[in-house]
Automatic annotation (TrEMBL):
Biological processes, Gene Ontology terms: isopentenyl diphosphate biosynthetic process, mevalonate pathway
Entries under InterPro entries matching the protein: GHMP_kinase_C_sf (IPR036554), Mev_decarb (IPR005935), Mev_diP_decarb (IPR029765), MVD-like_N (IPR053859), Mvd1_C (IPR041431), Ribosomal_Su5_D2-typ_SF (IPR020568), Ribsml_uS5_D2-typ_fold_subgr (IPR014721)
Domain Mvd1 C-terminal: 178-312
One GO molecular-function entry: ATP binding
Gene3D superfamilies: 3.30.230.10, GHMP kinase, C-terminal domain (3.30.70.890)
Domain Diphosphomevalonate decarboxylase-like N-terminal span(s) in chain numbering: 8-163
Name this polypeptide is given: diphosphomevalonate decarboxylase
Alphabetic keyword roster: ATP-binding, Lipid biosynthesis, Lipid metabolism, Lyase, Nucleotide-binding
Length: 324
């Protein structure tokens, strides 16, 4: 029996990963940049044992059906190939997210699984190689290996596409991200399908791709300079460009709901009163507000006039993977 147990934290991109140039290897079209957060995480235990006759996957105490287990099995196949074993595994995962958050947990989930497998089979992968492995499970998972600000280098093959931590003098500890949870339903269009559709059909996609490296350079410069306004402005603009691509896809789609727009408008309203804060959104309707810690009370107080306080969750910068 070989056992491993690890925790990984979720990350939210400030410069988004949107589109793959290789669907099998999960190589992205552009570099992305994220902040790892402390509020949402996954703990995963994996046991490889000769006696198992198939892979078994428990998520939040529930035995998962074929579709979810298949995704895990595909990832475990990569691990088995690396380790030179044919042992099946039992994977037991628990997501720590606020009730009804409805947040995608694939980044923390696959990063935790990769780290647990690394430990269980004594693969002795470096953080870089662990990031490459997690990437094969879910692109954004490669960033959750590291804490703080993280960049995912797109690379051009399996060896060269991985994430690394950005030096920031711990500036991220002065920042926070306020989640406005507007919906806990399964998303209509998964990030995988959404990306594919926009890459293949959206006439706005070329604009996204042309701007991504410029946005990334601006964000890295802002982090270096600890310039909150510059970082927030480019993150918000980059998010809007990503979401813009979906409107020109065939068929067109959007991840926004009326409550997403309400939250975005609230952020603009706060800025007009001199409170520096910026929004970002991923492949779903929830809105995340980037804010300096000192301004959390103002931002929260205003958002509480518009949303239920149970819909608001504050997250701070989080660490990289932890072996349990
Ligand atoms: O890693 P995935 O397949 O869940 O894709 C994540 C895509 C976005 O969340 C929309 C952007 C990002 O960089 O995290």
């Amino acid at each position: 029996m070989h056992k491993g147990n690890a925790r990984a934290f979720t990350n939210i991109a400030l410069i988004k990963y949107w589109g793959k140039k290789d669907e099998t290897l999960i190589l992205p079209m552009n570099n992305s940049l994220s902040l790892t957060l402390d509020a949402f995480y996954t703990e995963t235990e994996v046991i490889f044992d000769e006696s198992y006759t198939k892979d078994i996957f428990y998520l939040d105490n529930q035995l998962q059906e074929e579709k979810a287990t298949m995704k895990i099995s595909q990832f475990l196949n990569l691990v088995r190939e690396l380790a030179g074993t044919s042992c099946y595994a039992k994977v037991t995962s628990k997501n720590f997210v606020p009730t009804a958050a409805g947040l995608a947990s694939s980044a923390s989930g696959l990063a935790a699984l990769a780290a647990a497998c690394n430990q269980a089979l004594d693969l002795q992968l470096s953080d870089k190689d662990l990031s490459r492995l997690a990437r094969r499970g879910s692109g954004s998972a490669c960033r959750s290996i590291f804490g703080g600000f993280v960049e995912w280098e797109q690379g051009n093959d399996d060896l060269t596409s991985f994430a690394h931590k950005l030096s920031s003098d711990n500036w991220e500890n002065e920042l926070a991200m306020l989640f406005v949870l507007v919906n806990d339903q399964e998303k209509d269009v998964s990030s995988r399908d959404g990306m594919r559709r926009t890459v293949e059909t959206s006439s706005f996609y070329s604009g996204w791709l042309a701007d991504a490296p410029k946005d990334l350079a601006k964000a890295k410069h802002a982090i270096q300079e600890k310039n909150f306004t510059a970082l927030g402005e480019v993150a918000e603009a980059n998010c809007l460009k990503m979401h813009g691509t979906t409107l020109a896809a065939t068929p067109p789609f959007t991840y926004w709901s009326s409550d997403s727009l309400k939250a975005m408008q609230a952020v603009r309203q706060l800025r007009s009163t001199g409170i520096d804060c910026y929004f970002t959104m991923d492949a779903g309707p929830n809105v995340k507000v980037l804010v300096e810690k000192k301004n959390i009370p103002h931002v929260k107080a205003y958002l509480e006039t518009l949303f239920d306080s149970a819909q608001l969750v504050t997250a701070y910068a989080g660490p990289g993977i932890e072996i349990l």
